[in-house]
Amino acid sequence: MPRILLIEDDERTRRMLREMTERAGYEVVDVANGEFGLRAQRSQGFDLVITDILMPEKEGIETIMELRKDYPDLPVIAISGGGTAGGLDYLTVARNLGARYAFAKPIDRLELLGAIADVLIGSGPPGTLPAPKRRVRRPASRPGAAGSPRGRERRGRGRAGPGPRPLRRLPSRPSEPGC
């Protein structure tokens, strides 16, 4: 089972991301800042690191730089709630330092899970997401519906199918005396 190191200082975000990735079948260890993250990587070794950028102790840019130096093949995904440094966007800096993906918060669940799968399974070239698999509910085909064989025959001759039901008029209640 692939192991993910999650580095995020916000406890609620960290818990949400951990639960989401664990439900997707990954083993996740989470820590509160980059210093703890580097220690965890050195002692346990992970297949992927997901790191926030703006954190106390050791922020994400420094963490990514040290991870690149010590573990050049370790994939990193950067996440951030925003911010710039000297006119540069932190997520752009993270990508330039070697993060495979960079996401602004709030993070789209399917995009993040797609990026994780891409990095760990290699379902595409770096920087591209596999198309998310979404269930589409389609109405059951009924005779005369537009997609059914009878419906195709009826095209061009008015609407295909019975159409909306007319509103029913409710019976009026006689007014009660004394009301």
Keywords:
two-stranded antiparallel sheet; 179 residues; alpha/beta; 6 helices
Give the structure's gist in a few sentences.
The protein is of the alpha/beta class and 179 residues long.
Query: Radius of gyration over alpha carbons?
Result: 27 Å
* Total strands: 7
Order of helices and strands: EHEHEHEEEHEHH
Q: Ends: how far apart?
A: 73 Å
Percent of sequence in beta strands: 15-25%
Helix content: 25-40%
Mean pLDDT: 78
User: Quick one: biggest sheet?
Assistant: 5 strands, parallel
Polypeptide structure, described:
With 179 residues, the protein is of the alpha/beta class. The chain has 6 helices and 7 strands. The strands form 2 sheets. A 5-stranded parallel beta sheet has the order 2-1-3-4-7, sandwiched between helices. It has a two-stranded antiparallel sheet with strand order 5-6. A hairpin with a 2-residue loop joins strand 5 and strand 6 (88-89). The protein is globular and about 30 Å long. Mean pLDDT is 78; it is low at 124-139 and 148-159.
